[in-house]
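Tutorial handout. Part one gives the primary structure; part two gives the three-dimensional structure as tokens.
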Amino acid sequence: MGSSTGSDLPVFVVTGTSGAGKGTLEKALLAQIPELALAVSATTRERRDGEEDGREYWFISDEEFDEKLGSGEFLEYVEFPWGQRSGTLRSEIARIQGGGKVPLLDLEPQGALEVKRTVPGAVTIFVEAPSFEENERRLRARATESEGEIEERLDLAREQLSQAGAFDYQIVNADVDLALVELEGIVRKCLEAVAP
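Part two.
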């Protein structure tokens, strides 16, 4: 798919199952480490109430996604069993690095493995709930998906959990404060390793 993003600074990738609490941890991490900036993924899914184009996602049509895919504009992408596609545009990484920040990517495990394979120095961090039952409870509690989509996400979560060992770090998010301390420690250690 691609090669280096052109920076000596790492690209951080947070991944895991739906409902593991990745978004909560990322939001807190961004507040703790201002050198980071979250890459905004492009997606073909419908915009939810309160979401803004360019803030939560770049909302694009299937046709636009195909065009960008065909011209090599994606660093990685994933197609979900329920039909939507999402991916990271290379232009997002360039935008963040051009602003002097370090990219933080929130990806599905498949996309995270692709970035690990193609971006030198990428740091991949897998976040999981303390149990599959807790993962399911969190997913149902957020009430953003239909019952059918929840079941598909749970099936996918089972598969994703089997891949957890392929990532550089694993964090069990049983307590958000403790998980944040662990995540922040990983990021700061990696940033210090490349500091001039």
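Part three, for discussion. The chain is about 45% helix and 20% strand. Residues 1-6 have pLDDT under 50 and may be disordered.
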